[in-house]
Every structure is written in C-alpha cells, then in structure tokens.
Amino acid sequence: MNHFAPPSPRAKAPSRWIALACNVGLMLMLALAFGGWFTYGCQPNHLHEAVGTGLAIVTGLLCLAMTLVGSFVFFKHLRRDSSAANMLGLAATVIVGLVSTMGTPLLWFMSGLGRVNLGGFGGWGRPLRIGQRTITPDVKVSSEWAKGPRPNVNGLDNVTRAILRDLWLHDARKEHASVPAFGQVAWQLLALGAPSDLVRRAHVACLQEIDHAERCFALASAYAGQDLGVQAMPALFAGGAELPKDRSRALIKVATEALIDGALLEDYNAELARTALDDVRDPAAREALIRIVEDEAEHAALAWAIIAFCIAEGGAPVSKALSETFARFGDEATSLYDPALTRRVDALADKSPLYAHGRVRFACAQPVFQARKRVATEKLASLLAAPSAIRDSLAA
Ligand SMILES: [Fe+2]
Ligand SMILES: [Fe+2]
C-alpha cells in the first residue's frame, strides 16, 4: 500500500502581466475621464447629458471588471507566495481600482452637466412646456445663434463680465425655448381651427423669438469672449404640441396655457424689461431690450386674443377653467434665477455696469408683478363678462 501519495498539483496562478495590464488600463481610464471633464465639464460645450451618463456607466463597469481581475491575479499569487511584492501588488490594485471605479464615472457624468445651468423669470419669452417639464436648450460653443449687435466690453472687470455673460445666457436660452413654444401654439391653433390672423401672429411671434435669442446669444458671447449657441433638443423629438382628443379639454389647455405663459408671464417680463430701459447705456443692449419690450407686449396681446377665441369656442367650461387657473396663480413674483447667480449679483459691490448693460434691477420684480397682475385681473374679468366683444376688439 502506498502511503505517500504525490501532492496534488496546484493550479498555476495567472500571469502578473494580466494584473499589470489591468492597473495600466485603470489609470488610463481615469486619465481619459479627467481629460473629458477638463475638455467638456469645465466648458460651456459640455457633452450631451445622455452621452455623459452612458460613458459613466460603461467606464464604471469596465473599471470594476479590471479591478476584480487584477486583484484576483495578485490574490492567487499571494496564496502561493506571501512576498512583499505580491502584497504590494494587491494593495496597489485595490487602491487604483477603487479610485478609478469611483472617479471615472463621476468625471464622465460631470462632463455631461452644463456649467451654465440657469432657469427662471426674466427670460423674456414664452416658456416651453413638454409634459410637466419646462425645457431650455443646453449651451455649446457655436456661432450659429450669436447674431446681432455686440456690446462694448471695455472697462468691465472680469467678475462683472462673467455675471453679464451668465445673465444674458440665461435670457438667450429662454428666448430660444420660446421658438418651439410658439411652434406649439401655432400647431395647436391650427388643430383647433383658429382664424388665420391668430395663426399668423403665432408664427410672427416665433420669428421674433428667434431674433431675441440671436441678440441675447450675441450679447452673452461678447461677454464670454467666445461665441455661444445651443445644442440639439432631444426632448422635442417626441413632439410636445399634443392636445387632449376631447375638444373642450383641448380648448381649456390652450386657453389656460395662454393665460399663464402669455397673458401673465410674457406681459410681466415685457414690463420688467421696460424698467431696464431707464438705465441701459450700451447701444447693443438697448437695441435688444427695445425689441424685447415691444415684441413681448405683442405676444401678451396675442395670448389674450387666443384666450378670447377659446372662450368663444368652448364657452362656460373654458371660462371656469380660466377663473380657477388665475385664482391659483401666486401673488408674488418667483425668482427662478439660479440661486448661485443671484448670490453673485448680490455680492457685486457696484451693480451700475449691469444696469448700463441692460440688466433689470431685482428690486423692480415685485412691484411690476403686482401691477401687471392687477391689469390682468381686470382684463380677464372683462373677457369673461363679454367674450365676443373683447374678441372682436382684440382681433381688430
Ligand atoms: Fe422673447
Ligand atoms: Fe415672447
């Protein structure tokens, strides 16, 4: 009987070259992600959000896989030979792996987030609504939308100039979003069988918003020192002008949106922009403001005409919906400016260059809002009392 069986052969550990390749791969992934963040995340022309998120997921999984493979190789070697080299290899792989697996996706994700991500009132245009969301385009370096007179930036310090860039960029994005917003309005008016005058005015408003967007991008670009424009808007791929199949509900939707977005907000923004005309000194900013004030007032008038049309077509249910919607509208203007931007404006010791370059005084927001809401209250009451007469006068 043989009592001395030969030792069972131990499986050969995988080559350390594999672990080394994994470590190099991990560091390369991290370096690429850092390069991506430096190229896109720090600049206005950031990656599209979906691309950034996609890269974050893919690179995160790759880093995790390389970390597991590299650690496994050194672990197998450590079991055969607990030398300092193998321990060091395992520790290094785990550390590099953890840093890369966490850092790489984070950097790509941040590359898809715009540095300039503003929203809020003072956009001088009709908001673009897709479902429950209000959409504005993302920004990129481009000369395609920056068309119009440029301001004189001489004498502006860097902080003031950066604030002016971001304030005008905020407006530019809102103005741009107003273009498809009026595209929606025109589409919906046609769907409801509206008169040609209303459809024409909706398309004219669309062209005016293009002009506003170009002027605002031209101003923002001059303060930025490089031309800024917009990225594609995939949120619009699926439409956005849909109406309920029931005609009465469709009229209610068009009427209440016209009330909030046009008769109240565009009118308010037109009057708020008007207050800036007292202080503006820069010719390019002045020209843009004048166009905005005049055109936005026209858009508010168009909204009232649309409301009148909807009341005439839909009768009591539309009137009731308008009254209820108006009652829910707040009594105070809500500043939706990015809070960080508002803080930067507040912290500026000398705000006179902002006013000279066409920016409104924040202190004007509430009084103008209260005054315009009073005007809207009276107009709506008149319209609900005598819809056909008002409709005729508005269409004249
Ligand atoms: Fe506008
Ligand atoms: Fe507008």
Give the C-alpha Rg: 29 Å
Summed up, the helix count is: 12
Helix content: 55-70%
Provide the CATH architecture of the largest domain. Orthogonal Bundle
Largest sheet: 2 strands, antiparallel
User: Which ligands are bound?
Assistant: fe (ii) ion
Tell me the number of structural domains: 2
> Structural class, from secondary structure content?
mainly alpha
Mean pLDDT: 88
Strand content: under 5%
Keywords:
3% strand; mainly alpha; 396 residues; two-stranded antiparallel sheet; Ribonucleotide Reductase, subunit A
Describe the structure.
- With 396 residues, this protein is mostly helical.
- The chain folds into two domains: 16-111; 128-395, Ribonucleotide Reductase, subunit A (Orthogonal Bundle), CATH 1.10.620.
- Helices cover 68% and strands 3% of the residues.
- The strands form two sheets. Strands 1-2 form a two-stranded antiparallel sheet. A two-stranded antiparallel ribbon has the order 3-4.
- The chain is elongated and about 95 Å long.
- The structure holds fe (ii) ion (2 copies).
